[in-house]
Amino acid sequence: MKQVLYHLCRLLLAGVFLYAGFLKGRDPVAFAGSIASYQILPYAFNYLVAATLPFVELLGGTLLLLNRRVRPALLVLFGLNSVFMLALVSLLLRGLDVDCGCFHPAGEEGTGTSPQMALLRDAGLMLAIVCAWILHQPAADELLDD
Amino acid sequence: MNSLLRPSRRVLLEALVLMLVAAAAGLSLNYAMVMNAFSGRNIVLAPQATDPGAEQQFPLPVDYEELEELLAAGQLLVDARDPHLYADAHLPGAISLPLGEVDLRLDAFSTRISKETPLIIYCNGFGCPDSFDLGVRLIAESYRHVRVYEGGFPEWRDRGRLLESGAP
Questions:
Q1: Which residues of A touch B27 (CB under 8 A)?
Q2: Quick check: B18 pLDDT over 70?
Q3: Rounded mean pLDDT of B84-97?
Q4: A96: which chain B residues are within 8 Å (Cβ-Cβ)?
Q5: Lowest-confidence range among A92-106, B45-59, B93-107, B137-151?
């Protein structure tokens, strides 16, 4: 039963991060714009993060999918998810409205995700990461220095 | 339980390597975009597979402090918002060119504003894509110096700066 739950968590996380990484990675300029809307980083650094972060998600998701180097991948995705959640909390605390309400399709009501919903989703992912970590049975070569 | 959750040194090291490899891959694939962003040039992406040979250009953002300098140097503001919002209040000296009416108004705009004029486009602040999209359009129309003030109208207003009102 524990192993079924572990594989469910692993595959869920792999799917989510591969999908997220693919969407962000195929349009890094648009993703940089999304990061800029959080008003946390200096302008050029939004592009640096947009260039690299999707590949961290893709690599982490791939390792989980392949069931290889699971704990390092989970640790990286845990860190990444923590940063996402902190950014969302800062958005809520500052009362920033990142949807402009312009007529552009991306700004239409109902097409975006509110910070509250995103935070809830990230909390669910965090739970899956912790479950997968606890239920993972490391291979013999991963236990060498434990 | 504590030891169950605590990552071993090996796991920490592998996680670090994983991040470095991913970052290196991302940087190598998006090298031009990152270098352009840090050097202050327009963002240039690789030619699209569907349109070989074409070069797509994107406007680089301008922050509030840099905007002050650029306006002092005489650069022109372009308001990409709805004309009613422009009429209510806009940044001093801004010209209205709403993204939704760009096809109707572009000829008149081009007659009035030369392609060499440095332009700074704004709309409803961070997260509003209209200024960026208008920038892409104007670059495609051969405007050579186009940037986007991402803080836009809300940031200018919230800093207590002077606003103008009146129809375009």
A1: 51-52
A2: yes
A3: 93
A4: 126
A5: B45-59
In the predicted structure, residue A92 carries a pLDDT above the cut 60: yes
Residues in B 106-165 with any Cβ partner in A closer than 8 A: 123-130, 132-133, 150
Name residue, tokens 């991060």.
A17
Residues 31-60 of B with CB under 8 A from A: 33-34, 37-38, 43, 45, 58, 60
Share of chain B above pLDDT 70, in %: 85
* CA-wise closest residue to B58 among B115, B122, B128, B134: B134
Report CB contact under 8 Å: A98, B127: yes
Given a cut of 80, whether residue B72 has pLDDT beyond it is yes
Chain centroid offset of residue B58 CA: 7
- In whole angstroms, what is the distance from residue A45 CA to residue A54 CA? 15
B6 to chain A, any CB pair closer than 8 A? The answer is no
**B8 vs A52, A130, A145: nearest CB:** A145
**Is the per-residue pLDDT at B92 higher than 90?**
yes
Three-state helix/strand/coil letters over A26-86:
CCHHHHHHHHHCCCCCCHHHHHHHHHHHHHHHHHHHHHHHHCCCHHHHHHHHHHHHHHHHH
A57 within 8 A of A17, measured Cβ to Cβ: yes
Tokens 């060499």: give the residue. B116
Query: Average per-residue pLDDT in chain B?
Result: 83
Give the ipTM: 0.80
The pLDDT score that the predictor gives to residue B100 is: 86
CA distance B168 to B166: 7
Q: In this complex, which of A38, A48, A52 lies closest to B22 when CB atoms are compared? A: A52
Q: How is residue B2 written in tokens?
A: 């504590």
Q: Among A16, A44, A20, which residue's Cα sits nearest to residue A32?
A: A44
